[in-house]
Hints:
Shape: elongated
Structural class: mainly beta
Oligomer: single chain
Distance between the termini: 125 Å
Number of strands: 54
Strand content: 35-45%
Radius of gyration: 44 Å
Strand order of the largest sheet: 12-13-14-15-16-18-17-19
Amino acid sequence: MKPSRLLMLAGGLFAVLFPVSSLRGQVTFPGSELLGRPTDQSVTVNVIASTAIQAYFEFGTQSGGENQTSATSGTAASPLSAAANLPLVAVIGGLAPDTQYYYYMVYRQSASSSWVTRAEHTFHTARSASDAFAFTVTSDSHINITFGNPALFQQTLRNIAGESPDFHLDLGDTFAMDDGCIAPCTNVTNQAQANSSYLNIRTNYFSIISPSVPIFLALGNHEQEEGWHMGDAGFAVEPPIMSANARNEYFLNPDPLLSSFYTGNTDTSNTGITASSDHTIQDYYAWTWGDALFVVIDPYWYSTTKPYVGNQGGGESSTPGSGNRWDWTLGLTQYVWLEQTLQNSTAKYKFIFAHQVSGGLDDYGRGGAYAVPFVEWGGDNDDGITFAFNTNRTDVNSLWAIPIHQLLVNNQVTAFFHGHDHEYAHEQRDGVVYQEVPMAADATYGYGFSQYTVDGEYTLKVLPNSGHLHVTVDPVAGVTVQYVRASLAAAGGTNGAIADSYNIPAPAASGSPVISSLGLNPATLVGSGVYSTGTVTLSSPVPATSSGVQVTVTSSNPSAATVPTQSISIPAGSTTGTFTATSQAVTSAISTTITATATANASGSAQATLTVEPVATGLTSLTLNPTSVVGGAANSTSTGTVTLNGFAPTAGTFVTLISNSSNPSAASVPASVTIPYNSTSNTFQITSSSVATPTQVTVTATLNGSTSATLTVNPVPSFTPVRINSGGPAYTDSLKQLWSADTDFKGGSSFSVTHTITNTADPTLYKTSRYGTSFSYAISAPAGTYSVTLKFAEPMWSAKGKRVFNVAINGKTALSKFDIFAAAGAEFKAVDETFPVTLTGSGTITINFTTGSAGSPLVNAIQVVSSP
């Protein structure tokens, strides 16, 4: 064992209590070891000492057995060197793929100083496709920006350190670079202040994990790297350049020019970015780890026009903003790179990371799955209806092919992780998981900007801050996402608790069945303990060689309906599998989304909506229609409607009915009415009888309480017969009955003859008439049953077929193709036609005469009398 190793072990206890450098009183490390750019054969270390140092790194595959060095990581004979407070960057190379390594740093101040060994740390080289591994994600720590709590962010990072992930991704709003920063941060106006902001976060926070967990950074809006800040007045160095330089100085985002293991932004035209980082921005990049593709994208550098109006978030007071969401963009170069990266990858899983979508539910870029339809991300204008991608994303080579979300869907992206909205939200749309990452340091433990609501359609789970995501990737078991809560002792929460966990199944092998549909029968349940049968249908039978398809079923709202916790199995040769959803007691109608997801030997998922309705506990109303009837008259019934305050259960709901009246025989009410299953109301009939005086009948419906309504039963009103001498004067007939002069008509003309009329005792009635191409009579009458008699005698034609017409009474045909001559058998011969007519309420008897195939309609007299 080397002397340096003996020194490290002997000083181990002291190193726990005090930093080695502090004990010596000579060298401090404002930037302890920070790992980045891990590959299958190397990892890069960045260390910052307070004085000039020389250093090298020893490494090996066993803890305590570090005995290897490399030229790129220095040796005792040829150490690396760095000036005071500047990064010493070493590449620990020549490593074996898929291997756990241990390392430590050995340093001295000068060639005449003694070597000092720092603490041991560890890392893992890129995994093989058959390996399971884990990574972690944070976002929106907001330290020195509104909302961020330093102690809570440190707790989140300690939780991550205890999990030993292969690497960590931070999704931005981590470094205070705009005028939204708060003490001890100062507004960043020069490169030195930018460097201080980044170094502060590294020294006081990321140092908790950085020696053993490689860190990848995504840009957030508070990092001030939006393209519209290029050219900002009042800065010696433009904000995006300052931020990129500080990030590249103190962190190790992938530089595609240094290693083919990573792809990404190779643009070196930004000469303001330091040469030490190849003038590369290091803002978007991708790599493969195990059987998973990781892609970090940047919606900021290439958004050269500010999309939102105002100074939301800070740092924007001099930039008015367009209010046009189409101004959010990845830019054509990044878009093409993203498309090619996804298309060229054969990885089983594909993950994309960004602070926000390039678009959003509003012009500030909020939202996840529900932001999908809009602008560059989904192609629609702000209205969510008009597709305008092809007119807003154009280039001479037509490289803007399809909206970004469609790229994700077409290339089977597993999940899109994003921040910006400050809460936890698990969503899924078109087979892509949209995961909003919670704030890492919100000591209010709230819902941030409250952008998400569980609806079972796209948004499956919403939880308050704070904490991080722990993601396990398994080539067989799929991807497991866990929300690990962080809590300070004073808050009383359980630090490290798993607040949510879900699985994204591994994609099925090519040619395997796909879930094509999910059906629920019935789709509506009433009350608790009622069942619906779910049927999962596959696109093709399970192959005979398969052990069967496994399907997990979930309910978005278990308080409304539960489903089996065990997977359902669809055996070889079958295309369907069934399960039972069970309703729970609810106080109002609730819809829950049932999701079936293939977890073995098949792929895909399907959803269906189950509605659970509350059981009725009482009545809301009893109504009668009409509320007044003529007792004993035809159609003198009233319809009662009983309405529940909920839904009837499977056996129906029995409601008792009683009536109360001074005349019990005035109306007949049934003893009960039953409301059928899943209905809220039903009707019943009340039959009235003749009464001498108006009588009130009170009907009462009872179900855990009662409600009443009143029906008035009226006596049959007296009716004076109506007799009209059409076209003529008043006349008293042979029975001493008075016929009024022609009245109540509309249209037509009068006509008279002197010829003798036969077949009647009152020929005078038949010598006058009303005729015309179209005319009518309207005779007022109360509710009741009547006989309407129409009197005719042909005054002109001596053959049939000369006068043919139609008569309708209250819209119903009374006479069709009526020929007076044919009916009477002769000219000047009386013939009468009588018709029953019923009025259900006071109204009018309307008699319409219309032209038929010949001549004009004609009538000599009209009589209306009550029917017995």
